Amino acid sequence: MQNWIKNGANGTRQLKRSTWVLALLALAVIPLVAGSLGSLGKFELGERLAALDKNAAIGELERLDFVGDMGGRPRDLELVYHHAPRTNGPGPEGAIPILLIHGTPSTLYSWSELIHGAEESSERSGFEGLAASHEVYAIEVVGHGVAPDDLAPYTFESCAQFVGAAIRALGLERVHLVGSSYGGEFVWRAALNEPELIESIVLMDSSGVRRRDADWLPEELEMRDNSLAKIGWLINARERIEVALAPHFRGLPPDRVEEFFLVCNNASNWKAMVDLARDENGAREHELSQLRPPTLLLWGADDIAYTLDYYAQRFADEIPDARLVALPDTGHYPHEERPAEVVGILNSFFQELAAQPGTIR
Q1: d(CA 145, CA 262)
Q2: Which of 269, 240, 315 is nearest to 142 (CA)?
Q3: pTM for the full model?
Q4: Is 257 helix (H, G, I), strand (E, B) or coil?
Q5: Exposed/middle/buried for residue 41 (C-beta within 10 Å: 0-12, 13-18, 19+)
Q6: Rounded Cα distance, 39 and 230, in Å
Q7: Domain CATH code at residue 173
Q8: Of 76, 84, 311, nearest to 185 (Cα)?
Q9: Which domain holds residue 214?
Q10: Which of 33, 122, 132, 175 is the most buried (most CB within 10 A)?
Q11: Domain tally, the chain
Q12: 175 in a structural domain
């Protein structure tokens, strides 16, 4: 999960818990007319996300209606995605594209700078994105962002199955599959389900290893156990988002706050987040040793959601020949906090794969 509700400072946990509990209790006495407040619709959400400066290069999203295999039966689905062709001339024949999978409650827009780079500014140096040297796709996982909510209630397995179905719907024979946070678990489950589609996997601060009891934060326990959690979107506010996100970044850009706020203002996105928070249980961690694609673990050294010393190391120990790279002074979102460095690490990883004898990647 993107874990925006988490706070790593012990001194503030009890205060945040009290605020969260009181807010939820207050909702219990709000008259039913509160339901008429209405959530932010997906169409307006899409317009407002696209209007953020950092997302300008994405342009209009593409949509594809398709029939996907979900749990052994066909379903009518819609795929919302962004396709970025390689910009520095044609790549080698047979080059394998990259497919990016966001976390929860995020959106494909979280990958904007990683895909397209950024111009030089007073805050950072300019850099080229992944699309300079790779064909790149980023999809909205069903129930997230501006995608439809066709599969509610959501589980990690249904989201992983959607990722596999999306690869087939796009007509991609094999992909380099990259996922962040809950999206990382969607990725490695998809690689277990349909290994023939996956050339390599990259997991960034991924979920999937069973949580230790002491590591569940109070807000997560409220989401998992409180019967009112699914109407929490009614008390969504920019200030709450900013306070909750700050411990996960080393310098929080305002547009990230706005992006998360907008996503969480949609009731179905919020409910999907609660569904997945309740489904997080490490149910398939015993299968990690069965993963065969080359695997890169890219972790923020200061991640408070899935710590480097325990969760990243567990993945490194369980996945055969997995390579672990830790970014210092980085939190839970390396691709958003240090996109230029992450582009360089990913390019090196894919270049090494391409250099292996008998492969074109």
Answers
A1: 9
A2: 269
A3: 0.89
A4: helix
A5: middle
A6: 13
A7: 3.40.50.1820
A8: 311
A9: 10-29+42-354
A10: 175
A11: 1
A12: yes
